[in-house]
């Protein structure tokens, strides 16, 4: 019987891994099944643009996989059974068995951090949430307010995009930090502040949000702000599937893996992308980003193909080159970094950064060719 490889999740990491596995391994020796919740490839890095009302298209996974022997199963994995070596699905055939599992289920918004966020907050972490926000933004009358919570990359990009695409809205950005852009070198940070001023985004530093209400939010210490929508962008968390299955995971639900992306608890299982706590070049856990997801997707295919053909693979290298922040469609900041993610002195700003980021996003899609 041929060796059964099942990949869960067709995002940046899972789709790349699947296509590369299909290229590297011989039909007949393996069967490769890709399970994904939808039949589309969602460009997550554009979801803030979509939420702000910009045009949207999502590539067909069937088209992406045409000409390969990969079987696409459009279903949600509800459970992983490591003893029976199968993934359980919410639709027929109900379950699929594996000999090797590649777990690439991505991540979601951390909506459980404060009271009221799960009920009332919006998010941009997945297509469903971004769609809800898009509809809400379209409903809010001119002069209304959107509060973005979180001064990280997703919060900055979302606030800037909303401010540029919906000039009638007032956009407030709340961060618990002393300022925005603390990971950037001074020139990039100054540009970021100027761009937010130009877009009329009000930044509220040292403002830890304690609760979200239907009509606004409360800050720790007593202040409250009214808002027509609160967007929660304080970071991502991996799905519960891996932890519930008994795989070794970290506090964010990411699967703990060795340098070859193999589960520390279950050697027939690998994890990639946001759902994996990969080991980056410094030895620190990988950052949830495409910059980590893509080498992991490529790397896991090389590792699995090597082991199935009797070779012992080397470690997968996860390093960084830049932090890429769009500030609307015509502005941005590209902070070049060392491989360990620390900023270098050199940054691109303004239109050059926007053009650079767009080129990177497009090349990310091209790299899905494997
Ligand atoms: C608005 C926004 C902007 C971003 N900008 C950047 C950026 O500029 N640069 C950068 O490097 N990163 C950025 N990121 C982060 C980046 O999008 C993620 O790091 C990246 O998507 C991770 O890829 P992945 O393959 O691990 O997961 P994903 O791309 O999330 O793919 C996971 C896939 O698994 C599927 N799935 C999940 N659970 C199940 C299940 N139970 N059953 C079946 N299928 C399932 C999902 O439907 C999805 O198709 C951004 C994220 C957001 C939300």
TrEMBL record:
Which coenzyme or cofactor does it need? FAD
Key word Flavoprotein present = yes
Ordered alphabetically, the record's keywords are: FAD, Flavoprotein, Oxidoreductase
Record-annotated FAD/NAD(P)-binding domain positions: 4-296
What Gene3D superfamilies does this protein map onto? 3.50.50.100
Q: Does the keyword Flavoprotein apply?
A: yes
Q: Which InterPro entries match?
A: FAD/NAD-bd_sf (IPR036188), FAD/NAD-binding_dom (IPR023753), NADH-Q_oxidoreductase (IPR051169)
Q: Write one Pfam family the protein is assigned to.
A: Pyr_redox_2
- Similarity section: Belongs to the NADH dehydrogenase family.
Q: What is this protein called?
A: NADH dehydrogenase FAD-containing subunit
**Which species is this UniProt entry from?**
Streptomyces syringium
